[in-house]
Amino acid sequence: MAVIELKVPSIGESVTEVTLVKILKSQGSLVKLDDPLCEFESDKATFELPSEANGKITWLVTEGQDLKVGDVVAKIDTEVNDSVSETPPAINEKIETKEHPAKQHPSPSAAKVMREKNIDSNQIEGTGKDGRITLQDAKSHIPAEIPAPKPVQESSMSSNSANTILNERSERREKMSRMRRTIAKRLVSVKNETAMLTTFNEIDMTNIMELRNKYNEAYLAKHGIKIGFMSLFAKACANVLMQMPEVNAFVDGEDLIYHNYVDISLAISTPNGLVVPPIRNVESLSFHEFEFKLKVLAEKARSGKLSLEEMSGGTFTITNGGVFGSLMSTPIINEPQSAILGMHAIKDRPIALNGQVVIRPMMYLALSYDHRVIDGSSSVTFLVRVKELLEDPMKLFLEI
After folding, report:
1. Which of 280, 246, 253 is CA-nearest to residue 265?
2. DSSP letters along 55-89, please?
C-alpha cells in the first residue's frame, strides 16, 4: 500500500508552531491532488495545506490542536481513489450500478458553501449531472437557524419558571486563537519591556477635507483611486521621520538601529485579530501608489491571504481608531518599533481662531513612544510638525 504522510510545512524561520483551525475534508474521504485539506493559523497568518496526491485521507489530528513544523497531520492512501473502470457495461448490466467519477463531487461554488457551513459531502445526494453536488444541493443542507422562542402566554407558565428563564446564567469557554495569544504576549511584553509614554495634539481637518472634496473626482479620473486620509497622514509622517531619524529607530540590545527609509505598518482589523502589515519606502511613493498598496493589503488581510513576508518589517506604525468612533486613545507600540501614531474620529468642535469662536472638524492625534529611544521634546516636535503639514496639505504635494 502506497501511503503519503502530510506534515506541517515550514513557512518561515520565525514560525515553529501552528494551530489546526479547520479540517476541510472529512475522515476517510477521497481527495485529489492540490485539494485544500485544512487550514493552519500561525502567529502571523492563516494558510491552507494542499493535498500531495489522489487518494483516501486519514486524519491523525483534530481541529484546535497545536502542532509543530514537521508534525504528521494526515496520511493519504494513494491506492484508493475515486476512479472507476471505463469498460462499457454489459448489455444486460444495469447502468445504475456504475458510478460516475463526478458522483458526490461538489461544484466550485457548492464546495465554497460546504466549507463555510462545515457540511460533509456524504450528507448530500448530488442532483447535478452525473451525480455532482450543485450549489442548490449545498444550500438545501445549510442548517436552519434556530428561531427565537415565541412568547409564552403568562397563564401557561408558573411565575417560578418565568423567573428561572429571566435569571438564567450561562457561560462558555473558547480556546484563544494562536494569533490572539501572540497579540496578548506581545502587548504584555511591550508594556513590561519599554518605557512607553503618550503625547497628544489636535489637528484642524478643514483644509484636508476641502482639498479632498475639490480634487477627488479629478484625482479618481486620472489615477483610478480617490485621495484617502491614510495616504495624507502616512506621507506627512514619512516626511517628518526622514527629518527626525530618532523617531524612526529602535533598540537592539545596547545599540540603536537607525533607518534611512520609512516602512509604515498599518493596523488592519480582521475577523482573526489585528494585523499590521507594512507599506515599504513610503517616503518614495506617490499618494495614489500608497492608496493602491493599502487597498491590496487590506483585502488580503481580511481574507487571510497575507504572506509572512507581507507581515514582517516596519519602522513606524499608524492606527486609526476613528473608524470605530474612538475620540482619544493611547495606542501601544508595535515592537520592536519605537513609536506609533493614533488617529481618531473627526468631530465638529468650537475652537478659538483669530480671536473668534468657530466650529471646525477636529481630530485628536496621539503619539505613543519608547522614552528609551525618543526624548519628550522629540516626540512633541514630531507631532507638531505632522500637524503643521496636515493643516496645510499643499506643503505635502509641493514637498516643502
Report:
1. 280
2. EEEEE-S-TT-EEETT-EEEEEETT--S----PPP
Structural domains present in the chain: 1-83 (2.40.50.100), 102-141 (4.10.320.10), 192-398 (3.30.559.10)
Evaluate if pTM is beyond 0.70: no
Options 120, 130, 371, 392, the catalytic residue: 371
C-alpha cell at 245: 531619524
Residue 122: exposure state from Cβ atoms within 10 A (0-12, 13-18, ≥19): exposed
Q: Which of 66, 120, 130, 375 is catalytic?
A: 375
Q: List the pLDDT tens digit at each of the 400 positions of the chain.
A: 588 888 888 776 667 788 888 888 888 899 988 888 888 877 766 778 888 889 899 999 988 888 888 899 999 988 876 543 344 444 444 444 455 555 666 766 667 667 777 777 676 777 766 677 776 777 676 665 545 555 545 554 555 655 555 667 888 888 777 777 777 877 888 888 888 999 999 999 999 999 999 999 999 999 999 999 999 999 999 999 999 999 999 998 889 999 999 999 999 988 777 889 999 999 999 999 999 999 999 998 888 788 878 888 899 999 999 989 999 999 999 988 999 999 999 999 999 999 999 999 999 999 999 999 999 999 999 999 999 999 999 888 877 7
Largest CA distance in the chain: 102
From residue 84, give the alpha-carbon distance in Å to each of 88, 100, 101. Answer: 11, 7, 7
The yes-or-no answer on residue 71 being catalytic is no
Say whether 371 is catalytic.
yes
